[in-house]
Specification:
53% helix; rod-shaped; 107 residues; 3-stranded antiparallel beta sheet; Ybab, Chain: A
Length: 107
């Protein structure tokens, strides 16, 4: 029974640490760029878009389609970076334990 108590304590510590990491991810910011920095998307580690910065030169009606493409590209760049950071943080928690394919920690 001592082992079960030890396992339960470790599970509780793991759960607490996971909560801390999720809070850290929510506070973390990653920046994605496109168009040579003309569009910048800032996301948190949970993949939520926080800010969007657009170079004023792109705010011309004839540039609308380009601007739309650049916004999508900047968002995708930031999202990819946020996912990498989230995976890095979670792997610190698991000590590099590989999750089965398709299974991810909640963010």
């Amino acid at each position: 029974m001592k082992d079960l108590g030890k396992i339960m304590k470790q599970a509780q510590e793991l759960q607490e640490r996971m909560g801390e990491i999720q809070s850290e991810l929510a506070a973390m910011e990653v920046e994605g760029t496109s168009g040579g920095g003309m569009v910048v998307a800032v996301m948190n580690g949970k993949g939520e878009l926080k800010r969007l910065r657009i170079d004023p030169d792109l705010l011309k009606p004839e540039e609308a389609e380009i601007l739309e493409d650049l916004i999508v590209a900047a968002h995708n760049d930031a999202k990819k970076k946020a996912e990498v950071r989230a995976t890095e943080e979670m792997s610190k928690l698991t000590g590099g334990f590989a999750m089965p394919p398709g299974l991810k920690f909640p963010t």
